[in-house]
């Protein structure tokens, strides 16, 4: 395995199964409590048994606002500058829409 000059990151990925909604939230809290670096949610918009990923992530973000960040998580978010990444996502969506509309 090549050396990328940074520490290894560990995390967990979940399927947003609507029938196991509480388990998904519990796993997210467990991952945070264990200090895992990453938490991923599968995105399958065509799968009726799954929750919408963006809505689930928004719900989880609202829970973070209510419960607050742990200090190590707060530091990582500040360093990562999540605002700029979110702005990039918005612009990619806008330009995709403009492209699909034929540039009008």
Number of helices: 4
Strand content: 5-15%
The total beta strand count reads: 2
Distance between the termini: 48 Å
Summarize model confidence as the mean pLDDT: 78
What overall form do the CA principal axes indicate?
globular
Largest sheet: 2 strands, parallel
Question: How many separate domains?
Answer: 1
Helix percentage range: 40-55%
Low-confidence segments: none
**Strand ordering within the main sheet:** 1-2
- What value does the Rg take, in angstroms? 17 Å
Polypeptide structure, described:
The chain is 55% helix and 8% strand. Helix 1 links the parallel strand 1 (11-14) and strand 2 (38-41). The radius of gyration is 17 Å and the shape is globular. It has helices spanning 21-33, 53-67, 71-80, 82-100; strands at 11-14, 38-41. 4% of the residues are buried. The mean pLDDT is 78. Strands 1-2 form a two-stranded parallel ribbon. The chain has one domain (11-100). It has 4 helices and 2 strands, in the order E-H-E-H-H-H. With 104 residues, it is mainly α.
């Amino acid at each position: 395995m090549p050396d990328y000059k940074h520490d290894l990151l560990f995390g967990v990925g979940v399927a947003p199964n609507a029938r196991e909604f509480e388990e998904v939230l519990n796993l997210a809290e467990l991952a945070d409590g264990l200090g895992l670096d990453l938490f991923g949610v599968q995105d399958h918009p065509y799968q009726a048994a799954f929750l919408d990923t963006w809505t689930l992530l928004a719900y989880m973000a609202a829970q973070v606002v209510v419960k607050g960040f742990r200090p190590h998580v707060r530091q990582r978010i500040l360093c990562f500058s999540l605002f700029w990444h979110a702005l990039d996502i918005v612009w990619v969506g806008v330009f995709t829409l403009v492209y699909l509309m034929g540039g009008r």
